[in-house]
Amino acid sequence: MTEENQLYRLVEDGQRLVGEEFLKGEAKIPDEALDEYVEPMPSGATGNLQTLDSSVERILNEYSETDTAMDGALAEDVHQCLDITRRTAGDPGLWHWIAVDRYPDFVRHRWEYRSEAAMREKFLGAGSDLYSNAIHRLWWIAELTSDGDDYTLTEQVFANQTIVNKVFDRWFARYQPAVVAICDELADERSGVIDEATRRFNHALTNVQLEALSEEDARNLTRRVIQDVR
Amino acid sequence: MTRKPNDTTGEAEWFFFSGGPGAPRYGDDPTKHSVDHDSEAFVREVLQNANDQGLDNEDPVRVTFRFVTLSGEDKERFLNTLDWGSGLRGRLNAVSRAKHGRRYDDLVDEIDNPDSELRLLIVEDRNTTGLTGTWEEDSNYAALVRDELYSSKQDDTAGGSYGLGKSVLWTFSGASTVVFNSYPMESSGSTQGPRVIARSKFPTHELPDDDTTYQGAGWLCEPVQTEDGVRPMSIRGEKAEQLAERLHVGRPATSGTSAMVVDFQDPTRDERPDIEDLAEEFVEASVKYFWPAIFRDDLEVTVETSEETYEAKTEDVPSIRPFLECFKSRFTENELLDSPGDVAGLNIPLNIPPRADGTETPDGEVRLAARLASPADDDTYLNRVALFRGAGMVVKYYDQSRVAFGDRNFHAILASGEARTDFPPSDPDQEVDRFLRFAEPPEHDEWESTENLREQYQRGFRTALEDMFETMRDGLRHLAAKSNGGTDILSDNVLNRFPIHGNGAPRATGNSAPSEVFEIESSSRFDGERWTFSGRIEPIVENFQGWTAEISLTGIGEDGSRSDEIPVESITVDAENVTKIHENGTARLVAEASTENASFEGHSHATDNEDMLSGKVGETQIEIRAEIQTTEGDES
């Protein structure tokens, strides 16, 4: 029997608590300071945070720092433990709370500090940019590539960081049939092919309406482009 | 018709007009069927009436909805005062015996049942004109007490120009009876009162012990014999005050009207809702439709039950909060929405045709403001535009979901007429307000082409409205468009329609800021085989030694990101002293100090009839990077 916990969001003003020292992992934000800027999700959304806590704990123990394999190892659990609507997941405040308050150690374990701006994005990205906040990114990619409880494609995608980079940093990544088609078709390709094919695909979408494509259409389009690029 | 008129100190009694042979016969109240009635509609209509009758001063119109539940002796005393036993019950029995049915039968049983409760709703407005005038004239009093579907309202900004609203009072009365107590504000500026009268609206009926046909409309009044026959007069003075108290419709001696709905019930519901639930619905409906008036302190709404008093506060209804934020920030200088919560605005022109009498009208504008929705917002009215004018009532939450795209949802307002600014309205604002008022149908829930508009304005009113909405939609598209990601052709087209953005000349480059050193024009198109382009470059600074311009073509992705370069194959220039250099598919023009401007034309290499789905041909932007050499150094 698992227990559901209330989910929270970090309000916009709370972002000022996130300074360089925190991003580097050299300072913590006191709980009482955070409490002032954290509020329950207005939708009343809940999640199974106990399970997620232990998954994150396991990842921190099992994987060395910056190992990209931890994405694939955690994505399914993030998605299952946060069984929320896309609308709820569209609230940046939720992901800011999760990254800043709940799992800052994971964010720092996964992402090396290269610059303040880059690290801020890992903590305070989110919203319409799928490829930003460290945990938001896992949830959305799992959301767009899973099929019910089947996370096969999610695992394939995370096994190939070129796909993660080239597909999910683009606008068409918000349209699930296209995501499924292109990720599936590109799964075994070389990174050079993935790079060029996603660029061509994106360019072709200026001629056809993305949302009018079925998964089959998107698959045909991808195949056509891949053949040309190889 | 033979009732003897009472003298001035007489008791109130029920008076019904007799129809006489050939007089029109009424079924149920004809106005009952004209509006889609639920409690929300009730609140909206009633508040609109009160709001329109506001006095011309700084104070708000105050409206209190008061629920009173009577049982036992209280109920009996009330019914006696209302003259239920000898005045109304017999008539309702007569009505129910006729073909009009069971509703009245059940009603009589219910009211006569000593164990059942009687629900009253008193709508008390203050700082309003009250029921001024007499039966004989075109007055507030006559419009409410005498007429059907006839309006007599304060001024040009008033919400109603049909008088339909008042009928809801009877629609929501199980006993089809409403009692009024009014302190009218007379033209002298003094408050006269109280003035008490009740009105019933029954179907046409006959009583068993006389052979008169009664029309159906009845008054608890002082029937007075006049030259034109008997007229129902309101009770005045101390008698009125006492009567009002006994009927639970007493009020403070300030100008305004209290209207009591006897046996309040929602005709659209089978079950009687709990009073506290009803009170909360009333508060929510008040805020939903009147937040502009409430926010501007033009209107205060309170709902009282025996247990609690609720005040309608704009901040308590989450679904309208985003609209309120739009309204507060509607004159922001932002013209783009970047992050959730941002508000941006545009002026939307409304070109009003001349009035029917030939008077020219000034062209006006209304203010569109949109707020990018955040997932934390209540989404009840997501992607809707709240339309309202000076009356401060939201006419409609206009669904514009088609304009939203991707995750860029919004809430928007169209603040119009006397609600456009917070300052005293300009002449155009007043004309816009008048025009839109006449564009409202009886339900006041649209701005559309109406008979009223046809009467008041010359041809072109329909186009004026359509153009306003069309521009509003384009404006929304522009506001909701992606604010990053490069060339947005749709958005540029839209910009051309809004004078504040300048002349809408084509942009020279996709991403960079407009040049301060050069004036650059360019255009490009795909001719089926290749991209052709042309343009003109002119330095706008004085004293330069020469300049260069690099012209390139770049394919872009769906999201505006750069894709491959499209090599320029050929370029021609019309100016002398300009050297052309081709490098890696880019054309470079090098001009000398004497070259004041240069026009150019060129084309890319052919695409070899590439398939549109190959990813090799698609949206392309022309980029022009120009640099000038001056005596002080280079600028670009």
Describe the protein.
Chain B: Residues 1-34, 594-618 are annotated as: Disordered. Chain A: InterPro entries: DUF6339. Chain A: Pfam families: DUF6339 (PF19866). The complex is a heterodimer of chains A (230) and B (636). With 230 residues, chain A is mainly alpha-helical. Chain A folds into two domains: 1-158, no CATH class; 160-230. Chain A has helices at 20-24, 31-35, 49-62, 69-81, 86-89, 92-102, 104-110, 116-124, 134-145, 152-158, 161-168, 176-186, 191-204, 215-229, and strands at residues 5-6, 8-10, 38-40, 46-47. Chain A has a two-stranded antiparallel sheet. In chain A, strands 2-3 form a two-stranded antiparallel sheet. In chain A, helix 3 runs antiparallel to helix 4, helix 11 runs parallel beside helix 13 and helix 12 runs parallel beside helix 14. Chain A is globular. With 636 residues, chain B is of the alpha+beta class. Chain B has three domains: 13-314, Heat Shock Protein 90, CATH 3.30.565; 322-480, no CATH class; 505-635, Mu homology domain, subdomain B (Immunoglobulin-like, Sandwich), CATH 2.60.40. Helix content of chain B is 23%, strand content 29%. Chain B is built from 13 helices and 27 strands. Chain B has helices spanning 39-52, 72-81, 84-97, 102-112, 140-146, 167-171, 237-246, 275-295, 321-328, 427-438, 451-456, 461-480, 489-495, and strands at 13-18, 61-70, 118-126, 177-183, 195-201, 205-206, 213-226, 229-233, 235-236, 256-262, 299-304, 309-311, 343-350, 364-372, 384-388, 394-399, 410-415, 518-526, 531-539, 544-556, 562-566, 568-573, 578-583, 586-592, 598-604, 620-630, 634-635. In chain B, strands 1, 2, 3, 4, 5, 6, 7, 8, 9, 10, 11 and 12 form a twelve-stranded mixed beta sheet that branches. In chain B, strands 20, 21, 23, 24, 26 and 27 form a six-stranded antiparallel beta sheet that branches. Chain B has a five-stranded mixed beta sheet with strand order 13-14-17-15-16. The longest helix of chain B is centred in the middle third of the chain and has 21 residues, at 275-295. Chain A binds chain B through residues 9, 12, 41-42, 87-93, 127-128, 170-172, 174, 197, 199-208, 210, 221, 224-225, 228, and chain B through 318, 339-341, 374-376, 378-379, 406-408, 485, 555-559, 561, 563-564, 611-619.
